[in-house]
Amino acid sequence: MGERVAMPLREVILFRQFRGKVTWFAIGFFIVLGVSAPVSGQGAKEVTLAWSARSGSMGPVWVGEEAGIFKRYGINSRLVFIDSGSLAMTTLVAGSTEVVMVAGSPPVLAAAGGTEVVMFLSLFQGLPYQFYVDSSFKSVKDLQGKKIAVARFGSTSDFATRLALKNLGIEPTKDVALVQVGSTSARGAALKAGTVYGTLASPPENVVLKKMGYKMIYDLITSKSPFQFTGATALRSQIAQNPNLFERLVKALSHSIYTFKTQKNFSEQVIAKYLRLDDREAVEEGYEYYSKNMQEIPYVTPAGFQTIIEDLAQQNPKVRSVNPEKIVDNRFVRKLEDEGFFRSLYRKK
To answer: What is the pLDDT of residue 6?
Structure first.
């Protein structure tokens, strides 16, 4: 499955429980599609790919790894977890990773700082977040003066938190204290410890908070504003140096999206492993949400970046200079659509 970072013991145990299913699934999967099972080749390219959130929106990346789809397209993948999109972006700029799976805010901030980055495939659009607070909450005024957890300033959770607060009539920079805590699990732990009053969570981890008795006071999933959420991002120079590799990456990720959307049981097992979730209800709810709302043809949306630019520019004037068209590269997705790749994949006439 490509090179992996070391897994915690519990994660290894979970993997062993369904490793045989993964192997037979991969073999059967490629036979059904009429192609040979993946084999290693001297021409395979090693790619370090970072995923930046324990969110179901990352599901296709995990499925692509476990089902051997990356290797099928000549890519020796090495998945690494970095617990914030903004931190993941720093590894891309530093050359430690070739591709990072992040939402739209980190690429916009990187572009504002002069780095030429592009998102070349979209995994999810919209804001799949719910705002959870302490069970003592009675009304919006209870938020006044409270600490609200975000991952990192400039991250998607930061943007979404400020948007939720504004929609509730709360001024994020005056009425509450936003604090950087880290990943969704870390923010949930801070909420449980009482060091923060509220935070955002996305499926399936929102189910965990709900069961623990925290109150959901705002649902960003229903927001009508276009927003570019999770997508594959790389340096423009890297793509220019090896466009064939990135076309293969787009094929592999598109194939992984298809597998995620159509292989429910397998995908749920993979979600449970990577999110370290034993709660079947949470896993099922997360899978159903993301598989239903994930695009079949993964175009990146410039309009979704424009929403982000308009918001971030209020704190960082340099962001106003960012052209959303310049951080979007849909050429590989468009080429595959023109060639009938997606029509063949989904067996559409």
So the answer is: 36
The pLDDT of residue 266 is above 90: yes
**Omega within 30 of 0 (cis) for the link into 204:** yes
Q: Give which of 333, 305, 258 is closest to 108, Cα–Cα.
A: 305
168, 248 in Cβ contact below 8 A?
A: no
Q: Which of 56, 54, 50 is nearest to 293 (CA)?
A: 56
Residues 313, 319 contacting (CB under 8 angstroms): yes
Q: Is the pLDDT of residue 263 over 50?
A: yes
pTM to 2 decimal places = 0.79
**Cβ atoms of residues 290 and 122 within 8 Å:** no
Provide the residue ranges of all domains of the chain, joining segments of one domain with +. Answer: 9-126+227-345, 130-222
Distance CA 196, CA 179 (A): 8
What is the CATH number assigned to the segment(s) 130-222? 3.40.190.10
CA angle 95, 105, 305 (to 5 degrees): 115
What's the fold here for domain 9-126+227-345? D-Maltodextrin-Binding Protein; domain 2 (3.40.190)
End-to-end CA distance of the chain: 32
- The answer to whether the CB of 78 falls within 8 A of the CB of 306 is no
CB atoms closer than 10 angstroms to residue 19: 12
Does this chain's domain 9-126+227-345 share its CATH topology with 130-222? yes
